[in-house]
Structures are given as structure tokens and as C-alpha cells.
């Protein structure tokens, strides 16, 4: 047939469209993926890969109904561009909404005083002199504190995740013989350039905690001065917090909060051996934790230390919403819960922790190296916490922060 010129490539059969193939892909991968990762793939597929994306009818791209063999590199590039534009617009809207909400929560006299360079506390009663000066100035109302334009594309992280999922799915389709090559070959689409994290100063940590709902203030301080991951903070039980020795208060990380495939909260073991650790905390944070445990935590050793006001686990979405409002209040719209972990690592570093001690403290090491790091920190962790307490107890100190890789 080839010699006669009558040969044709066999017609591709079974699953023909992306919408038909992705469920099969996820089913086959379910056994080898963590439930939270599988849930992430589900959400990426449903929200971005199999949904129409774009900011206008003219730019909308829908890959779901396209046969696998007809997905081309230009089509993938158009889809990725439309997705980035959509996510950027959504991120900008969320930031603006949070800034407006924070402005409404802040007394206009306080915002005016801060903008005028008048030293006023982030919360609490305003001095009469400040109120009088604000009234004399015509009672000006503050404008929302919006994120300054840094050139960063805030939607690129999710876009790169969605692109990597699409590329992985199409790689599997190649292996299955459904297509002869992978069209997901858009340069740079699979990477997102994270901006340089600017650690919070001790004063900013205190202001952020004060702007949080009362039941999350101690969690904010703990995250910022211990370097725990958000999931580790919100998986702590009463039994994991040992405040019996005022000279060596500790939290022990044995669990982490994660989610199932359908985004239900669950508690699991840390990913690596390095994640299991005991961290000494500053005395100032210990006092905040003691007040929190007495005020907000249910009795019993297994009670979750940090819960919602109704006693349920604090979901990632709930703490993210609280963070969005609080960070807008202090004018740091770049801050996330993971940012507090970075801040804790940086403050520990400038307090004198060695790299081995630092990696052990934040549980950021390979299983082989973790044992060395844990041994190195055993005799120094209390000293590091004592040094950190200097910053926590005097949040107005100006502390020069040098950059530290996460």
C-alpha cells in the first residue's frame, strides 16, 4: 500500500475529546497520587482545562470538545493566553474587594492619621487629639489601599499549574497511542516566576495579628515566629502545645491539615520525616497561645487548638479570606499564610540560627539530612526562641531583614 500510494494512517479511536479522556487519566492516576493532589487536578481540569476561558467572547477558548488529534500548539497557546488574562482579572478584582472591605473596617480617622505620619496604634481607642485633628481636617475618608503595580501577573501560578496538567494528560495520550505528539509546547507556560518575598517586620506581624479575627490572632503570631506551615498550624491539638516550662515552651508537629479529593478537610501525617519536629517558641507567642487556649480551644488533649467560632476546623479558604482582609488593613497585599512561614525562617536566621538549625526548625530538609539537622538544633532551639522573643516582645524595633530562600 505504501508503494502504491494508497496507505493511510489508521483512524484514531477511543476517547476522542479532552473531556472524554481526562476522567480516564485521573482514574488511572488515582492510586499513585495523594488525595489532595488528585483534588487539585480535578479542580484544575474542571475550572480551567475543560471550561471555556477568556475575558470576552472574542478571546474565549474551549478545549473540552476539541478532538485530541486536533489540539495544536497554536490552540494551546491561545488557551493559555486567555487563561492568564482571565486569572489576572479575577486576582485584581479580589484584591480590590479585600482592600475596600479593609478600608470600611478601619476608622477613617485612623487611616488619615497613618497616611499623615501620625503615630497611632493599629487597633484600639484613638486619642482625642487625633480625632480632633481629623475633624479639623474636614473628616477625610480614606481611599482603598490597593496593591502597587509591580508588573507581576498574579494569575500565572494557577495558569502554569493548569498548563502542566494539560501537558501531562497529553503526554499520556501519546503513550496510549491516541496522538502521535504532544502539542503542549508553549515556551515558559509551565513555569511561574514567584516574586521575591519581602518578610514582615515584627511591627507588621503585630499589626497583622491585630487585624485578624480574634480566634486567629494567636495562630498568626505562631506562624510568623515558629516557621510552621499553615497546614501544620491548623492541625495542632491542645496536647501538641506544651507551655508547662516558661523557659522552653514548645509546639510539636505530628500532623498536617490537608484535603481529600472533594476538598473536605482531613488530617494526615507530614510528607517527610523532617516535618515531624518539636519547635521552641518565643515566650511572647507562648503567652498569646495560653490566652487562646483558655478562651477559644475546647477542653481535652485532642481538641484542635485553632477552630472556627463554631468549633469546626479552619478551612484553607476561610483562613485565606481572613488573611486577605487583614493584609489589606496593614497595606501588605502580598502576604499569605505561607509568607508568615518565610518570615519566621528569616527572623530565626537573623537571630543567629545556622542553616542546619534553620532547616530543622522549619522542617525543610530531605529525610536523610533531616536527622542531622534535628540533632544540630536539639541544644540550640530554646536559645533561638529566646532571641526571637526579643523581636516578638518589641514589635516596633526596626529589624534589617536579609533575603532567605524558602
General description of the model:
GO terms for molecular function: acyltransferase activity; DNA binding. Belongs to the 'phage' integrase family. Keywords: DNA recombination, DNA-binding. It comes from Actinomyces urogenitalis DORA_12. The protein has a 3-stranded antiparallel beta sheet with strand order 1-2-5. A two-stranded antiparallel sheet has the order 3-4. It is built from 15 helices and 5 strands. It has 2 domains: 160 residues, DNA polymerase, domain 1 (Orthogonal Bundle), CATH 1.10.150.130; 192 residues, Orthogonal Bundle (hpI Integrase, Chain A). Strand 3 and strand 4 form a beta hairpin. With 406 residues, it is mainly α.
List the helices and strands and how they pair.
Elements: H1 18-29, H2 35-49, H3 73-105, H4 108-115, H5 128-136, H6 156-175, H7 202-211, H8 217-226, H9 230-233, E1 241-242, E2 250-253, E3 256-259, E4 265-268, E5 277-280, H10 283-295, H11 316-329, H12 337-350, H13 355-362, H14 367-377, H15 381-393
Antiparallel strand pairs: 1-2, 2-5, 3-4
Helix pairs in contact: 2-6, 3-6, 3-11, 4-5, 7-8, 7-11, 8-10, 8-12, 12-13, 13-14
Amino acid at each position: 500500500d505504501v508503494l502504491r500510494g494508497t496507505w493511510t494512517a489508521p483512524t484514531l479511536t477511543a476517547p476522542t475529546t479532552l473531556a472524554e479522556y481526562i476522567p480516564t487519566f485521573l482514574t488511572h492516576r488515582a492510586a499513585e497520587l495523594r488525595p489532595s493532589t488528585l483534588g487539585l487536578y480535578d479542580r484544575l481540569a474542571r475550572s480551567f482545562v475543560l471550561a471555556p476561558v477568556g475575558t470576552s467572547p472574542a478571546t474565549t477558548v474551549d478545549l473540552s470538545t476539541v478532538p485530541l488529534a486536533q489540539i495544536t500548539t497554536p490552540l494551546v497557546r491561545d488557551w493559555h493566553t486567555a487563561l492568564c488574562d482571565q486569572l489576572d482579572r479575577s486576582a485584581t478584582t479580589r484584591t480590590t474587594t479585600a482592600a475596600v472591605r479593609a478600608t470600611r473596617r478601619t476608622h477613617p480617622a485612623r487611616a488619615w492619621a497613618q497616611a499623615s505620619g501620625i503615630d497611632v496604634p493599629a487597633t484600639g481607642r484613638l486619642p482625642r487629639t487625633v480625632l480632633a485633628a481629623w475633624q479639623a481636617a474636614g473628616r477625610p475618608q480614606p481611599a482603598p489601599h490597593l496593591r502597587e503595580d509591580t508588573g507581576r501577573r498574579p494569575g500565572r501560578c494557577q495558569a502554569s499549574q493548569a498548563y502542566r496538567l494539560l501537558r501531562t494528560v497529553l503526554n499520556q495520550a501519546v503513550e496510549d497511542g491516541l496522538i502521535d505528539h504532544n502539542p503542549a509546547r508553549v515556551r515558559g507556560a509551565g513555569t511561574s516566576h514567584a516574586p521575591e518575598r519581602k518578610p514582615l517586620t515584627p511591627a507588621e506581624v503585630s499589626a497583622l495579628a491585630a487585624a485578624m479575627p480574634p480566634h486567629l490572632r494567636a495562630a498568626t503570631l505562631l506562624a510568623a515566629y515558629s516557621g510552621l506551615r499553615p497546614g501544620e498550624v491548623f492541625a495542632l491539638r491542645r496536647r501538641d502545645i506544651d507551655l508547662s516550662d516558661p523557659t522552653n515552651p514548645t509546639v510539636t508537629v505530628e500532623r498536617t491539615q490537608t484535603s481529600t479529593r472533594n476538598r473536605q478537610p482531613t488530617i494526615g501525617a507530614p510528607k517527610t520525616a523532617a516535618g515531624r519536629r518539636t519547635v521552641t517558641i518565643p515566650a511572647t507567642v507562648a503567652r498569646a497561645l495560653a490566652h487562646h487556649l483558655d478562651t477559644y480551644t475546647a477542653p481535652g488533649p485532642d481538641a484542635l487548638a485553632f477552630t472556627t467560632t463554631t468549633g469546626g476546623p479552619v478551612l484553607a479558604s476561610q483562613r485565606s479570606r481572613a488573611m486577605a482582609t487583614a493584609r489589606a488593613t496593614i497595606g501588605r497585599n502580598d502576604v499569605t499564610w505561607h509568607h508568615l512561614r518565610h518570615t519566621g525562617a528569616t527572623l530565626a536566621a537573623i537571630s543567629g540560627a545556622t542553616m542546619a538549625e534553620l532547616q530543622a526548625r522549619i522542617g525543610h530538609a530531605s529525610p536523610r539530612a533531616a536527622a542531622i539537622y534535628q540533632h544540630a538544633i536539639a541544644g540550640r532551639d530554646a536559645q533561638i526562641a529566646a532571641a526571637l522573643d526579643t523581636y516578638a516582645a518589641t514589635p516596633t524595633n526596626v529589624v534589617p531583614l536579609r533575603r532567605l530562600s524558602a
